[in-house]
Task: structure prediction
Amino acid sequence: MHRATLLLCLLAALAAASCNRPDATAVSAAVPSDGGSLKGDFGPPQGEPIKAVLTSPPQVPPATNRTTPAKVIVELEVIEKEMPISEGVSYMFWTFGGTVPGSFIRVRQGDTVEFHLKNSPSSKMPHNIDLHGVTGPGGGAASSFTAPGHQSQFTFKALNAGLYIYHCATAPVGMHVANGMYGLILIEPPGGLPKVDREYYVMQGDFYTTGKYREKGLQPFDMQKAIDERPTYVLFNGSEGSLTGDKALAGKTGETMRLYVGNGGPNLVSSFHVIGEIFDKVWFEGGARFQENVQTTLIPAGGAAMMDFHVEVPGSYVLVDHSIFRAFNKGALAILKVEGPENKAIYSGKEVDEVYLGDRAQPNLAAVTAATKSATGGALTIDEQVKAGQALFAGTCSTCHQANGAGLAGVFPPLAKSDFLAANPKRAIDVVLGGLTGPVKVNGQDYNSVMPPMSQLNDDEIANILTYVLGNWGNPGGKITKAEVAERRKAKSAVAATGR
Ligand SMILES: [Cu+2]
Result:
């Protein structure tokens, strides 16, 4: 038979097969639907009005445990406030309820919600709220426009069950969202959600500062970076370290955990993943149906998802945006610490190790903050630089050169007692900024490998790391200043610009 005819026959056969499949329609009819606004009105509210319990992340309010619709009063205050965005870095956040993300709101489908939006007298800007769970133009935005020191009120019936985000929609909308103005509202289905042992509230957002990642001090918003969608930070719950170290989420083996995860954006889509776990259920897009056995779930900007998983094995589980540079270089990383007896039949052991996570597992960058303070005051001592450098070295250089600077024979040269370093200490600035490739001889041994550029580190960080390296392990000592690093960085970019 002719090739084209054969193809046509095949196609026809396929089409006929799918047309004749009687179960195709039967399946969709068999899936019960309790969704849709037409099925969400259970009549007028009953009983006394209830004041909604609002919680700060990562906490979630208790289940409504109601079988009838109620009138629920929500009072939410907008507060503009300076808070840490990373260790030693602060940012002027605009918040719903004083936190990023804003307070978690929980109601039941069919409830009548009387919403009060207050704008703190200390605010500089007017704000409003668009709740994605509202049926009505603007999701409440036009009805809730509130000047500083004012309050507004509107009422809506929560017709659709699901997990919805809310956000400010005052112009310029992108800027209000980028400053942290978003949160989650859960509208429970009438029968509630399946019971679990623990629930947590996590929300991703992208942030744009004029300074580089971890550049210290109060960092202003950078509108151009936001327009270009080039975030400086991608974060869970509004600050780097908000859910790591002693603020990690907690769990016990044998428990079922539920995460309510939103993505405020304003720009990025999240590939949300928990390293070492599989979501037993994901209510994708925050809707009424769940998918089972999911590794990574996509959460659009302005969207949300709920996920359940049962934990069998103790240890540290790492929540990331699996667009992985965001996790390791922009902050999108959180820890769930699960305690309980080992379960060697399921997993043999050895925890998430330091090398994988660097300084992100247990960030202790207090020394970095101290050094920054002294630097601003003009009284930075070598000792402070060394301490800050040590903390930073542990997170970046130790992966290859090892925590004690000894390197790995034949692969990573030693920084301890390095004659390469001693011959020209300032050359190390160029090594860190530009990386190093090709043959080098260190302490008599030949290396011919690649060190990638570490130019993502800022001038401060490089100065402190190198001062630490120079002052330890039998190296000659001395000091590298932030200004010296800045100068070398400028010289390098000038060379790059001339194309030489
Ligand atoms: Cu706003």
